[in-house]
Specification:
Distance between the termini: 103 Å
Number of strands: 2
Strand order of the largest sheet: 1-2
Order of helices and strands: EEHHHHHHHHHHH
């Protein structure tokens, strides 16, 4: 004899027959039909998707799908289309001189946009997103340029870098006056005071007097008699209050003691000539270009 259906007296819903604690019954509430239909539809859709599109990873490849769709190829096609659209401007920049790019509004706009993108991906880690620089990394927004701030000078610096293995790299080596025992500790202190005095930051005038003689003998050949620097030699201007490694007394002493000497890579080994030109135009436009 078939089991009779049991109906819950409170809800009027059929029970499953499962009972707990003598009076707690499990109701038989099936999913709504619309919910089940949606679930069946998604199962069918997923099977169709796996057949039509790439879906299953294999040991060394993946299933391609009958439609042969490739998201990677779509991206590659978009990149190729973008390059084709840019080719008109890139070709023009490749043929133009740097000053000609500046004078052409269309090329200048394109170069600035491309230079900003290249700067963000290659230069910002050291110089900062806003090119503000950090201790040991020059601020590219001011008008203080160690190797010169005109377009050609900026382009050369970017292209060949500083103190690296490139045969055309910018090269300047400040003596390690302390490490190489060229000056005594007291002499380094005195010449540091003199260097600070050039921008009005000295605190010991007697030391300034002694340091002036040392500076004239040891430093003026590169930095100039008045400490104004020499861009041909890569000797910084010491009289404008802009300090690459910090302008505190201990920072200046450390610079004289060790000679510092940061390194910048030659970007022509990593970036194409058009991008290098765009970078030069962009950096020059930041506000401190000469």
């Amino acid at each position: 004899m078939a089991d009779q259906k049991k109906i819950d007296k409170v809800t009027g819903v059929e029970t499953t027959g499962h009972v707990w604690d003598d009076d707690l019954q499990e109701l038989n509430n099936p999913m709504p039909k619309w919910w089940l239909y949606i679930m069946y539809a998604t199962i069918i859709w997923s099977i169709g998707y796996m057949v039509a599109y790439p879906a299953w990873p294999l040991a060394s490849d993946y299933t391609r799908g009958v439609l042969g769709y490739s998201q990677r190829q779509v991206v590659m096609d978009q990149i190729a289309a973008g390059k084709a659209a840019q080719s008109k401007f890139r070709d023009a920049i490749a043929q133009a001189e740097l000053n000609e790019i500046q004078k052409n509004p269309e090329l200048l706009e394109f170069a600035l946009a491309g230079g900003a993108a290249a700067f963000g991906g290659n230069c910002a880690p050291c110089h900062g997103r806003g090119a503000q620089g950090f201790k040991g990394y020059p601020n590219l927004n001011d008008d203080d340029w160690i190797w010169g701030g005109d377009l050609e000078a900026v382009h050369t610096t970017i292209r060949h870098g500083i103190r690296n293995a490139d045969e055309d790299s910018r090269q300047s080596d400040m003596p390690k006056f302390g490490q190489e025992q060229l000056l005594e500790k007291a002499q380094i202190n005195d010449v540091a005071e003199y260097a600070l005095s050039l921008s009005g930051a000295a605190t010991d005038q007697e030391a300034v007097g002694r340091g002036a003689e040392i500076f004239a003998e040891q430093c003026s050949a590169c930095h100039g008699e008045n400490g104004a620097g020499n861009t041909e030699l890569g000797a910084p201007n010491l009289a404008n209050g802009i300090w690459l490694y910090g302008g505190d007394k201990k920072d200046v002493v450390q610079s004289i003691h060790t000679g510092r000497g940061g390194v910048m890579p030659p970007w022509h080994t990593r970036l194409d000539d058009v991008t290098l030109k765009q970078l030069a135009v962009y950096v020059h436009s930041l506000g401190g270009g000469q």
